Structures are given as structure tokens and as C-alpha cells.
Amino acid sequence: MSKVLTIGEILVEIVATDRGNGFREAVPLIGPFPSGAPAIFIDQVGKLGQPCAIISRVGDDDFGWVNTNRLQEDGVDISGIEVVPQGTTGSAFVRYREDGSRAFVFNIRHSACGTITLSEKTLALVDGCSHMHVMGTALYSPSVVESVLTAVERIKANGGTVSFDPNLRAEILDTPGMREALRTVLSKTDLFLPSGEELFLFTTAQTETEAVADLLGRGIKAIVIKRGAAGATYHDAELHLHLPGFEVEEVDPTGAGDCFGATFVTFWLRGASPADALRYANASGARAVTKAGPMEGASTEAELRSLIDSQGIA
Ligand code: ATP
Ligand code: MG
């Protein structure tokens, strides 16, 4: 079975329990929840029983423990998570605005995971993996960019595959070197997983059909566009397929895209049909939004099947 690798931020998330505009006043908070887009992604891969690992760093503190404990419980190889003795685990404070958009305060670049570099030990872990998933959010510091690009190169050189979710947050787009790094990753991507407008990040095309044709023409094998409650669309050279979302009550949308991507990638690597992979991924994204906390809504395969069966989709 393919072993899936990701590299990037491990964070705790602390969430305001009321809605409003950011953090310029004292607000009630709940957390810490295990978080970080790459961590949520790899936790969902682990929960599906697929071999997987993450390379990251945490501090020697409770926030780090919250994450490593959860990831290990859910089946993730945590041998690539280094504990930085004087470091502090990263964090993100999140508050929803009345319109549903999110305000963030991040502590990532200057946290333990801002110092990720590859060692002999983690390079050996890279070489034991056959699929690399890149999260755009993970390209937040030059040393992490270098680690991600090295892993992409080595895994591709060994005949492996790469998936890429740009997962852009306005707060991190101005990181030096980020845009160039995104382009380099795209040029090595087999499976591209943008959400909505992210499809147009790397093309001058004006319509979705043209953007998809342009990207497929550059060697990307398949594109899956995430559309929130409306579901998702799959494109490859032969097939174009849209499946609507499942009907669920949305409690907390954070993490839906990561769980969706993890589930699509896992089924794709197992050789499932695009329709099956898309159906399970939609179920995974839908279940993710029903739980408060970004990683709390990750699902087992049985839980996904039960949602699919309950809504009568064969
Ligand atoms: P993230 O905030 O995690 O980065 P994203 O923008 O990458 O999210 P979304 O499109 O919001 O991704 O969600 C991913 C998938 O999750 C959707 O394609 C859909 O399958 C599922 N999903 C998300 N929100 C809902 C919802 N309210 N109801 C049903 N399914 C949903
Ligand atoms: Mg996303």
C-alpha cells in the first residue's frame, strides 16, 4: 500500500465561542483543538487505515502533546515529528464573523514548526513514502518550503505521486518566496485539489472549462474542485463529473477541505473509480463540518459508508 507523506504545520486551534470581528476585545474561547491543515489531512488519511506520516516540529508543551497523541491514536506515523526543546507549539486563534468568514491570529512562523528542516532521519522517512501531499499553507517559511520541495523531488524521482491543495489564506500569501514555491509544486502535481477561485491561481483562463483544459494540458492528471455545501467536481482527460454535497448541519466548516482531500487522495491511491473517490470525499467533508474543532470531524471508512447509505446514494 502507498504510504502518504505530508510536511508542515502542527498547531492548536483556539476558537471564539461567539461571532464577531476579530480579537480586539476579550472574548470567550474554547480549545486547544489539534489543528494545522497538513495535520488534519494526515489524521484523516490515518483514520482510513492508509499508511501515512507527517514531518513537523512541536514544542515540549501540552499543545504539542495534544497533537502528537491524537495523530498517533489515529494511526499516523509520528516518527517525523521532532520536539524542539526551547520551542513552542504553533497556534491559531479563530473567530467567525457574522457573514461566516473567519478572522485568524496565527503563531506559526516563529513557533516550533517554523524551524522544520530535513535531517538524515526524516530524509529516510521521505524515501519510505510513495505519495506526497502538499498544503499551500505549509509554505510559510523558507526552510519549510525547501523541505517540501526536496520531498516532492525525491518522491517523484522514485516513481511516486504528488497531490496539491493550495488552501490559501490571505494572511499568509505575502510570505517571501511563497508564490514561486506554489508554481514549482504545481509543475510536479498529479492531483490538484483547489477550492472555488483557487482554480484560477495559476492560469490566465477566464472560464472553468478553459482553466481545467489549460492545467490538464500541463501534465496534471486530475483536478478536483471543492465547492463547500454544493459538493465537488472531478476532471481528467476523459471524464468530467459533478456530485452534490451531502445534507448535514454545518457547525464548524474548518477542516472540511483537508478531510475531503485526504479521503479523495486515499481512495485515488487505492485505485477506486473517480465517482467512488468523489462520493467518499464528499461524505468526509460533510461529516467534518458537523463537529466543532478542525480535526474532530475526521471519519473512519465505516462512518463514511454509513452517511452515504443513509442518504440513499448507491
Ligand atoms: P477549508 O476551510 O477546510 O480549507 P475548503 O475551502 O478547502 O475548506 P470546502 O469546499 O469548504 O473546502 O469543503 C470541502 C468539501 O467538504 C466540499 O467539497 C464538500 O464535499 C464538503 N462540505 C463542505 N461544507 C459542507 C456543507 N456545509 N455541507 C455538506 N458538505 C460540505
Ligand atoms: Mg481548503
From TrEMBL:
Is Kinase one of the keywords UniProt gives this record? yes
InterPro entries membership:
PfkB_Carbo_kinase, PfkB_dom, Ribokinase-like
The scientific name of the source species is Rhizobium lusitanum
Record GO terms (molecular function)? ATP binding; kinase activity
Q: Where is the Carbohydrate kinase PfkB domain?
A: 1-298
Family, per entry: Belongs to the carbohydrate kinase PfkB family.
Give the stretches traversing the membrane.
none
Q: What does the UniProt keyword field contain?
A: ATP-binding, Kinase, Nucleotide-binding, Transferase
Return the protein name.
Answer: Sugar kinase
